[in-house]
Design goal:
There is one protein chain. By secondary structure, this protein is of the alpha+beta class. It has one domain: Aminopeptidase. The chain is 34% helix and 29% strand. The chain contains six helices and seven strands, in the order E-H-H-H-E-E-H-E-H-E-H-E-E. The chain has a seven-stranded mixed β-sheet, sandwiched between helices. Helix 1 packs across helix 3.
């Protein structure tokens, strides 16, 4: 079972190590100095950012990170995304990584995404959907989304995280499940 907890400053060395892993660095393209990790993730740990950074654990061991945010809180994401697909009120976005290289390619990305979706529907009753843009070349990422139940709803150009990537993105979405009737 996957569990989550908020990223804390004590986790920065772990996160730094994950960001340095080639399989993470390829898609996240993040500066990996400790100063950069503190600069970019510190505001979230102190509650100064509206989004959440959550460590994912399997059997008590951390293996990944999920970022979750209301799209409305990040106009720099919402506006260009809204030019490709309709973004309803109450839409969230997620981003994710499997940091531990020994856990890559084992289906944990899909499981982590599914677990985060379940948590989202339980914790955020006004969330209407989750929308995720993915660089078209990141096949492992968009396949994990598909396996987790998201469907491709659009395609267009967005600024990639890594400047070596083509700007073509696929956009995935999953809506809040309808309540069970009985």
């Amino acid at each position: 079972m996957i569990t989550f907890r908020a990223l804390g400053e004590q986790d920065f060395p772990l996160l730094k190590g994950w960001l340095e892993q080639p399989h993470v660095a390829r898609w996240w393209n993040h500066e990996t100095s400790m100063e950069a990790v503190v600069r970019d993730f510190g505001p979230g740990t102190r509650g100064e950012e509206p989004g959440e950074d959550l460590l994912a654990f399997l059997d008590g061991a951390p293996f990944g990170l999920v970022q979750r945010a209301w799209l409305a809180d990040y106009p720099e994401d919402l506006v260009p995304l809204g030019e490709i697909v309709q973004v309803p009120e109450g839409a969230l976005e997620i981003d994710y990584l499997i940091g531990d290289p020994g856990r890559v390619g084992r289906g944990l990305g899909t499981l982590m995404i599914r677990s985060m979706l379940e948590r989202t529907w339980e914790e955020l009753p006004t969330a209407t959907c989750v929308i995720v843009p993915v660089v078209a070349g990141n096949v492992a990422s968009w396949r994990a989304l598909e396996k987790a139940g998201l469907r491709r709803i659009g395609e267009g150009e967005l600024s990639p995280d890594n400047p070596i990537d083509d700007p073509r993105h696929y956009v995935y979405r999953i809506d809040r499940p309808e309540p069970a009737t009985g």
